[in-house]
Design goal:
10 strands, 10 helices, 7-stranded mixed β-sheet, 3-stranded mixed β-sheet, alpha/beta, 44% helix
Amino acid sequence: MDSFRSAPKVSIALPVYNGEKTLIRTIDAILGQSYKDFELVISDNASTDKTSEICQKYAKLDKRIRYIRQKTNIGIYPNFRFVLDKARAEYFMWWAADDFKSNDFLKLNLAFLEKNSNYVACTSPNKMEAIDDKASLLSTFALNGNLEQRFFCFFNNCWHSHGIFYSLIRKSALNDCKFIGEHFFAADWAIILHLASKGKIKRLDEGEMISGLSGISSGSEAWNAFHKRFYHWFMPLYEFTFYTLVLSQKYSINLRLKIFARLLFLNLYCTFQKYFSISHKIYSDYIKKKLLKR
């Protein structure tokens, strides 16, 4: 209990559900960070595999780990809210159960934020798992410059923005982000834009992050997972659009119009992708049935 009386410098939040396949590698990567003054808050979302067994084993070995098991599955995004609410440190980061970061990630990103108070978050180059190691394939964009530059840099790179979402963040920048925990498509985008409205987000040249492929947005049923209302058929980014427009209310009319136009484009693009994905699945299922009958 002595280790929990004074708050650490960094809170690492690990929401997990049935993560046994990657969890050992992930926790080892966290505990192997060269910077040691952190707490690891794990929220097990009522897993049915060996997740609980793995977490309890590590919690007994390292006092920095706080393991909490939900009695019932509270949902993916409420679990992200839960671990944020449990975090005690000045700096905060979500860490996905299938992600990997270099052992200098915390040290490098924390050192930058400590020296640059006008930045709200900092991260390292990242890529998706199984992607070639070529430098040209790494995501290296940062959200620098003025507000408009930050917003439109994000819009231009939103499809590979995982490294920004899983950056090291000043926890105070998330305190008034009311929609964390809500389930909607591009909820992570909305959080990134919230951060970008608070200040700049740095991307270092050093360190590395590898994003796993088992997230909800990586699956073939991703669209169905977020389709809850009739308007999602023609406006898949409805909630993201709403929160972005609310966020931009205090900005100039010119900037708000530019943002609205980009949001319309993103919704049209997502609608096309959604119908293409559905059509492709229907066609694939039809072909499989035809082959089985032969």
